[in-house]
Structure formats: C-alpha cells, structure tokens
C-alpha cells in the first residue's frame, strides 16, 4: 500500500512514517505484527531495541552532538488503534492496512477509523529516531500496547526500565493544547442469564435498527450530548413493551468501551393484532427523537422492518428489569469539574448491550479525574443493575493524572509555543484516559506533559487528521527537543 498522496504531504518525514505504520494491522490486543514492525525498525537503525514482558517496545537513541548534557527524554505513544467502520464498509482490520485519502486539509480513511490516534505520535517518534539532522537529547522511545482497551501496556511497564527524566506523551488531539492531567477510568460490566420462551402464535416479528449516529470518543466527546445508540434503542424497546407488550429476542448494540455507540440492532415480536398501532407509535416516537437530535445528529435513522419470527424470546420479567435498568443507568456527563472551567470531571458511556441465547451483557466505561467521584458513579451503576438481578463486575481500574502546574517541562512548552505561534497555548486537563497517570505510578519523579496535532472524530469512521496542524505540531516538536533543560 503506497499511499502516494499521503507520502507527498509535508512534513514528509512524519507522513511517510505514518503511511508505513498504517500499512500494518494493529488492533488492540492483537499487536504482534506492529510490535515486530517496531522492533525491526529499531534494529535496522542499529539502535538499542527491546521488548518488555507485556509487549511494550523501547528504542534508545544517544544525544546528537552538543546535546549530551541535556536531560534524557522519553517520547511516548501507543501502537494500537480503535477499530470502527461504517456498517456498509467491507474491511478486515486483522489483515488490511488502513486505506487513506486527502480531503482538503484533512487526511481521512475510507469508511474506517484512521489510526491518527495515536499513529501520528508513533510516526513522530519514528521520524526523530531515523533522522540524522534533528538536534535532540538522549531519547528513549516508548511504544506501549493496548492503550485503547485497558492500558495494559502502561500498567505492565515495570519501574526501573526507563531511564529518562522527562516524558513527552504525544496523544493530545488539539494542536493549541498542552495537556497536564487526565481522567482515570473503570469498566462496569453487568451480566445475567435468563430463560428463553417459545414465541406464541399470532405474533409478528420486526428488526429495529438505530444507525447514522456520529459516535466518537467516549471521553473527549462525551460533553457534546451526542446520541447513544444503546440508550435510544432502549427508549424504543421500553415504549413498545409498555404499550404493546413487545418481546425481545435479541439486541446487539455498540462496540468498543471507549467509543460512543453509533448503531444498535434488535429483533422483537408483538401481537399481530397490534401491528398497525405499534408501527404508528414507533414512527411517532422515532420522529420525536429525531427532532430532539436534529441539530446534533442529522444522520440519525430508526428503522422498523418486518422479519422472520425468531424461535424464542426473553422471559418478560427479566426483560422488564433490563429495559428499566438501561433507562435508569446514567449515560453522559455526571459532574463537571468545579476547579477547571469546562472540564468534564465524571462521566459514563453505556458502550455495549448484548442480549442473545439466554445471556445479557451490558458494558460501561466510567471516567473521572477525581477518584471518589469515579467510585460514586460506578457504585450508582452497580446498584442500578444489581436491582434487576444482574451480577456486576468492576474491572480495568486505572488512575488519573493529577496536574502539576509547576512542572519545568510545562514551562518549556508554554514558552516555545508562544515564541513560535505568537499566542498563548491552552493548558488543560482532559477527560480522556492518557497513559501518564499509570506510568507515573512507577515513575513518580518523571516530569510529564502531553501534546499533539489536531485530530477530529477519534474512535469513529469520521476520524481525520489536519495536514496544516501536523506541520505546526512537527515544528513544535523539533523546537522542544532543541530546548530540553540540562541535567
């Protein structure tokens, strides 16, 4: 996959490495190929290259001439990417490289996520490692795995492996932003079994499809009030159950825990004598929901189509409990930060709802920059689902990253940004989960900062990277590396 249009973009060093990387399939938890790719890259440059016991790759490069007295810098990005595609896109993330194209000032992918999160960070580090002309201190390149589905790479990195003094995390998605803090998170998973009952005579079956939502990053986009396919589907199911005795055969909604759900599909049955009234009510409710979301979600569709009768449906008692629990379970912003203007403190994403073959599974990702608030919301969700007979597991807990406004590297970046761009940067904490908080547990003395190029629509097929921003960001990186403090 040559991607000549991408490789012709400036800065060529950055975009060529991004094209190389995006030719390698790199799903979370299936990073074997990209790990080998990165090790081969480091070894080909004759640089010290190692893989730790969980799969993180570390490549070390000595300082350039005259920079030997500067502090060692850890440049860090994650190798994996979120895999999302449009329903009508035929694509195998396990075997295919990302198909990219240029759209004005944006690089996009054809019907899939682009992988700029965090591929542009990885490509940046690769370009610096390969260069023979960029001035820099001693560099430790840290490529972590599995950031998107559990941060197990950062969690598995042991203390004492890294030697650097300063960590530059290249995973922020606005080029005027300098990140100094982030949210922690915890997975809330509710499960239970149910009895399946044969479908009675005199029933009509339908497939309900919720589609056309924007989706997006469940941290960075959660404040936008975008539609959640699982919550919208539940409104339709709840209404049909309350008014027409609707029975659920199957539900399959959402996908990844850190992506706002764009689609949901359910198979249901209703009494044939209620058919006309049910269809009329469904259309009326769908129209009302579309009006609610017409500004934010102009592509939203709720489609009712008649289908073959399923063999079995859920027992009604469990169905009632599930639909009520999903209605009650909090989704979206739970609390705004009282200390940092416009920062979401705590939120939840009802990411995945699966009902089939006698088993229910509901997956949520709860985020917060305040540990006690994270626990509070997780407990609220747990109580909601336990009231309806579910077993609830809290797992994948990871810490946030507390801001340090006295950070020396923060001051370097502020000064450099002002000098280059003649304006003040936006210093902020974010509601996404960055690896800095986890890495800081084993490296508490390391001075950490996060920044990056402008990327929009991360975790969705609308993901796109700004070409002009990449230029601005690349220049910022080079200037920062020139001005790392002395030891």
UniProtKB/TrEMBL annotation:
UniProt xrefs under SUPFAM superfamilies: Zn-dependent exopeptidases
Pfam families for the chain: M20_dimer, Peptidase_M20
Hydrolase recorded as keyword: yes
InterPro entries in alphabetical order: Peptidase_M20, Peptidase_M20_dimer, Peptidase_M20C
Peptidase M20 dimerisation domain location: 209-293
Keywords (A to Z) from UniProt: Hydrolase
NCBIfam families (UniProt xref): aa-his-dipept
Stated name of the protein: Aminoacyl-histidine dipeptidase
Species, as recorded: Dokdonia ponticola
Source species taxonomy: Bacteria, Pseudomonadati, Bacteroidota, Flavobacteriia, Flavobacteriales
């Amino acid at each position: 996959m040559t991607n000549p249009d991408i490789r012709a973009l400036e800065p060529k060093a950055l975009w060529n490495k991004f094209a190389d990387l995006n030719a390698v399939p790199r799903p979370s938890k299936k990073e074997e190929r990209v790990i080998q790719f990165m090790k081969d890259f480091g070894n080909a440059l004759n640089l010290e290259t190692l893989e730790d016991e969980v799969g993180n790759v570390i490549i070390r490069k000595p300082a350039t001439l005259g920079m030997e007295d500067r502090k060692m810098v850890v440049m860090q990005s994650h190798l994996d990417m979120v895999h999302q595609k449009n329903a009508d896109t035929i694509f195998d993330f396990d075997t295919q490289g990302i198909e990219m194209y240029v759209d004005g000032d944006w690089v996009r992918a054809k019907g899939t996520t682009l992988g700029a999160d965090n591929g542009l960070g990885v490509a940046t580090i690769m370009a610096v490692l390969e260069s023979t002309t960029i001035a820099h201190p001693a560099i430790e390149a840290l490529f972590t795995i599995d950031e998107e589905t559990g941060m197990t790479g950062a969690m598995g990195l042991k203390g004492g492996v890294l030697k650097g003094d300063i960590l530059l995390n290249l995973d922020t998605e606005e080029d005027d932003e300098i990140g100094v803090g982030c949210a922690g998170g915890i997975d809330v998973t509710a499960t239970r079994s149910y009895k399946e009952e044969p479908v009675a005579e005199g029933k009509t079956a339908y497939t309900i499809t919720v589609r056309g939502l924007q989706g997006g990053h469940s941290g960075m986009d959660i404040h936008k009030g975008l539609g959640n396919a699982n919550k919208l589907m539940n409104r339709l199911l709840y209404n049909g159950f309350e008014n027409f005795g609707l029975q659920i055969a199957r539900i399959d909604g959402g996908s990844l825990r850190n992506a706002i759900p764009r689609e949901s599909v359910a198979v249901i049955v209703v009494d044939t004598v209620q058919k006309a009234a049910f269809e009329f009510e469904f259309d009326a409710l769908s129209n009302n929901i579309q009006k609610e979301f017409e500004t934010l979600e102009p592509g939203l569709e709720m489609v009712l189509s008649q289908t073959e009768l399923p063999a079995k449906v859920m027992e009604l008692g469990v169905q009632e409990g599930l639909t009520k629990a999903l209605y009650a379970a909090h989704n979206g912003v739970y609390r705004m930060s009282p200390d940092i203007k416009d920062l979401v403190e705590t939120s939840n994403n009802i990411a995945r709802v699966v009902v089939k073959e006698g088993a229910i599974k509901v997956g949520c990702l709860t985020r917060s920059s305040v540990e006690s608030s994270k626990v509070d919301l997780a407990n609220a969700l747990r109580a909601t689902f336990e009231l309806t007979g579910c077993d609830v597991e809290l797992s994948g807990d990871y810490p946030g990253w507390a801001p340090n406004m006295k950070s020396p590297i923060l001051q370097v970046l502020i000064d450099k940004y002002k000098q280059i761009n003649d304006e003040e940067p936006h210093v902020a904490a974010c509601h996404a989960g960055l690896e800095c908080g986890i890495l800081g547990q084993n490296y508490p003395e390391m001075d950490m900062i996060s920044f990056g190029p402008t990327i929009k629509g991360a975790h969705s097929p609308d993901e796109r990277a700004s070409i002009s921003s990449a230029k601005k960001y690349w220049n910022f990186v080079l200037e920062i590396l020139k001005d790392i403090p002395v030891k």
